[in-house]
Amino acid sequence: MSREKRSLEFYVLAIFFTIFVLFLYGPLSAVIILSFQGPDGGLTFPLNGVSLHWFANLFEKQAVGDFGASFQRSLILGVMVMIVTVVVSLLAGLAFRRRFRGSTFLFYATVASLVVPSIIISLGIGVVFQQGGIAPAWYSSAFGAHLTWTLPFGVLIMFAVFNRFSPAYEEAARDLGASSWQTFCHVVLPMIAPSLIGVGLFGFTLSYDEFARTLMTSGTYNTLPLEIYGMTTNVTTPVLYALGTVTTLFSFTIILLALAVMTMLGRRQAKKS
Question: Domains in the chain: how many in total?
Answer without folding.
Answer: 1
